[in-house]
Amino acid sequence: MSEHAALLDVAREAVAKATGIIRSRPNFSVSAKGDRDLVTDVDTAVEDALREFLAAETPEIGILGEERGRSGDAGDLWWALDPIDGTANFARGIPLCGISLALVDGAQSTVAAITLPYLGVTYTAAQGEGAFANGERVAASAASEMPDAMIAVGDFAIGELADEKNRARLLLLSDLGARAQKIRMYGSAAVDLAWVADGKLDAALILSNNPWDTMAGVLLVREAGGAVVDRDGSEHSVDSAATIAVGAGLRKEIVDALDRAYGVVR
């Protein structure tokens, strides 16, 4: 078994454990951790359980989680974990949320697992080996015309400089909304990126890049034949400012729309 395959098995088991915890906790508490930013006790329970599991299975690999920060070895190889991506959806009983786990090596992810616990699907990928949904290979969209494109857009910015950031988002929505088949806002980067990999969406525009949110989905999209770039069209990495995932045929159209929106705001 290759190293990637062995670590993918670890990731797959980890997100399965997370699904079990979520399904065993129908009642939970919700609190605010920032401006319009929620956390539940299920988020922390999942992260704590997966940290314990990953530390036991891969003690040489550090962990960066959304709720507890960084622990373990601070080298080039680390797990990026979002215990529940789409917490606001989860807290309201909206089933569009996911557990996202990636193994990051330097600036790129090499192993990924995203499970959508209420939809019964787990997406997995290892570098160079393709992307899969419940064990079946998936492929990104081949769409090349904007009128055929269903595009997901990430959440609006909150906190410092939110007004400035959201001006560009509104311009982008106006541009794409006038030309694309449909615009959607699902509220979970894990869902958006997994569905680009699965060809359900033609593009997902996440105008931020928290590694726990994005690094698993980035690998899924690339292994499914899609492209993932930064806002300026350069190849996406862990240090990128944005996460723009797209079927390869729409890459230029999407990057051009971003240039127009952010060019006005500069």
UniProtKB/TrEMBL annotation:
<dbReference type="Pfam" id="PF00459">
    <property type="entry name" value="Inositol_P"/>
</dbReference>
<keyword id="KW-0479">Metal-binding</keyword>
<dbReference type="InterPro" id="IPR000760">
    <property type="entry name" value="Inositol_monophosphatase-like"/>
</dbReference>
<dbReference type="InterPro" id="IPR020583">
    <property type="entry name" value="Inositol_monoP_metal-BS"/>
</dbReference>
<keyword id="KW-0460">Magnesium</keyword>
<protein>
    <submittedName>
        <fullName>Inositol monophosphatase family protein</fullName>
    </submittedName>
</protein>
<keyword id="KW-0378">Hydrolase</keyword>
